């Protein structure tokens, strides 16, 4: 099977696309994770102080989650225009929107200075971050996967996925630098937390230049040349492929819930709280280590997915995650810093193995004419079901039960749901992704759909 171009783009073009998607998604997720990290460490004090410590922390975590509710809006908008005018313009626009929103958070007045206006504007900017994140991912993964030859889609698709652990590593590393050396103690509360947000403006300038230099996806170029864009891609998607959207969202939900629990707000807050009592900077450095492990296994999983398939790779990842949900908190609850490193490092293995293959698998189950809409909306809905309020739910469970076992049970339930969704979807490695193969792409993506092409009988049996 072939792509619109016989060589699926030159190796040089593929390297340029890989670099551009990694840089862009790293910057986007740095911005997104900086907020989650700050919410767990400082926002309860500077924006929600009148609510008290416990409720203020819940409100801070809820502000992390509220942006997820607006990811589908970003996904709908980016998907609609990405399927009509191209992948590349959406990548540039979402990057700029995220950067402006993040930088403005860095100059916001606190509740003490501006009263209720401060948290209200904070939430508005967080919503803009959510819209940007909802539109970013689909464009980045399609640029990577649609430029790649069929045998390398798994590893090509893992490159934009690397932006998440890299963004987390950068966010936690910069915050640790601020809390440990540049603005320790009260200085971090007073002004130090602002610096990571303000750095975004520099990163956005770099990302903009890199993304502008990348060629449009060859598959969309072919769609545009043949004038085969769908008039209303989102309507077509839900009319024909609503089940695929739900299943793909559920596949992501378990990974996203675990990811935001481990690296996005809750564990930094939990590990530095009274029960565990670890130092703030030490915990941030442990989170940075976990992000590095997440990066390694996300990259590895792309190669594994090209070797044994996306489905098997996912099952390995979710299997490791299920095994670790209880030991994660058992080790953290010891109050030992080495045990925290061990807990997060082992947990990150499952995170990476169940995240790297996502881009290739999503791209292979949705038809070319609605692919941007399909991957973006599925990802956004999965984020709502999984990560949106995972830190808030975890904090509420701790408040009501007094034990971390309740959080482990919650994570186990989310993991089991994702495993069930994985088992329902079929692997389709090597399927021709071009608009010329739309008829074959329309069928056979689930085990319920018996309308499989003969070429895929052995692959999926």
TrEMBL record:
Keywords: Cell membrane, Membrane, Transmembrane, Transmembrane helix, Transport. It is found in: Cell membrane. It is a multi-pass membrane protein. The chain crosses the membrane at residues 55-78, 90-111, 123-145, 166-185, 191-210, 242-263, 283-305, 314-332, 338-356, 377-398, 404-425. InterPro entries: MFS, MFS_dom, MFS_trans_sf. Residues 17-430 form the Major facilitator superfamily (MFS) profile domain. PROSITE patterns: MFS (PS50850). It comes from the Bacteria. The keyword Protease does not apply. This is MHS family MFS transporter. It comes from Arthrobacter pullicola. The lineage of its organism: Bacteria, Bacillati, Actinomycetota, Actinomycetes, Micrococcales.
